[in-house]
Automatic annotation (TrEMBL):
Ranges annotated as DNA-binding: 27-46
Organism encoding this protein: Sorangium cellulosum (Polyangium cellulosum)
Biased composition (Low complexity): 234-246
UniProt keyword annotation of Transcription regulation present: yes
Skewed-composition ranges (Pro residues): 204-227
InterPro entries with a match to the protein in the record: Homeodomain-like_sf, HTH-type_TetR-like_transc_reg, HTH_TetR, KstR2_TetR_C, Tet_transcr_reg_TetR-rel_C_sf
Basic residues compositional bias, start-end: 256-265
Domain HTH tetR-type: 4-64
UniProt-annotated stretches for the region Disordered: 194-265
Name of this chain's protein: HTH tetR-type domain-containing protein
Superkingdom of the source species: Bacteria
Length: 265
């Protein structure tokens, strides 16, 4: 086994020990026992437990970065976003111990390591911020504060992962993916139809009180009157009807008789 393979073996053993015992309870002796190497061999590669844990966290961050793909707005946006969520959830759930420590407040750890964990969390947040900013440029993310968008998203995902770790029966991954996508779709995701697809149809509003359920009736706009074909003049508009009726009545009334003037004797 060469040096690179030995290093990877120690990292795999450390990952298993951290997953089983957590960071506080894990010991270098546990790691070397699982890796079947002498304790001195461990120190050839890592100065202490914290350094090997930091190496694992950096690997986790690298996998997160590789899991996020650039969204093509001309293709199926929903499928691409779900792919990204599914990949991120898989990376985090495959390393439950690392994820819980990375996303937690790391209470009880030495200050230097807490500072390092905060730096890792900030890198994850910046990675998501850059992805959201790119989404805004492509038109698939609503305008707004990408820093807060990233904070809300990480917070929601963190709570789901914590609950998943505490429950006896973990939630199915696809259920988490679907629920998180639905949450984002009603939030900052802009799900406009791709070019060439029909526009979304607005849903009808609630029916009027007492109205029977059913599709809303369409109200046609009044158009110009149809031309007459019998030679008669077209009917006047409503606003002209009263003067027309008065004129017809005046024409139809009989002439008044003239009163004879009396002649003088």
């Amino acid at each position: 086994m060469n040096k690179s393979e030995r290093r990877q073996a120690l990292l795999r053993a450390a990952r298993a020990v951290f997953s089983e015992k957590g960071y506080h309870e894990a010991k270098v002796d546990d790691i070397v026992a699982l890796a079947k190497v002498a304790k001195g061999t461990f120190y050839l590669y890592f100065p202490d437990k914290r350094s090997v844990f930091g190496e694992l966290v950096r690997g986790l961050f690298s996998r997160l970065g590789g899991a996020i793909l650039r969204v093509d707005p001309s293709a199926d946006v929903e499928a691409q976003v779900k792919h990204n969520i599914r990949a991120i959830v898989a990376v985090l759930l495959d390393d439950p111990a690392l994820t819980s420590i990375l996303l937690s407040h790391a209470a009880g750890l030495d200050p230097a390591f807490v500072k390092e964990l905060r730096a890792f969390r900030q890198e994850v947040k910046l990675l998501l911020e850059r992805s959201l900013a790119e989404g805004q440029r492509l038109g698939v993310i609503e305008p707004g504060d990408t820093e807060l968008y990233a904070t809300f998203t990480i917070g929601a995902l963190k709570e789901v992962l914590f609950e998943n770790a505490l429950e006896d029966q973990a939630r199915p991954r696809e259920r988490i993916v679907t629920a998180l996508y639905d949450l984002l779709r009603r939030g900052y995701l802009r799900m406009d139809p791709a070019p060439g697809q029909p526009a979304l149809r607005a849903e009808p509003g609630p029916p009027a009180p007492g109205a029977e359920p059913g599709p809303p009736a369409l109200r046609a706009k009044p158009g110009p009157p149809a031309p007459r074909t019998d030679g008669e003049p077209e009917a006047p508009a409503l606003e002209d009807a009263a003067p027309a009726r008065a004129a017809r009545a005046e024409r139809a009334s009989p002439p008044r008789a003239r009163r004879a003037r009396p002649r003088g004797n």
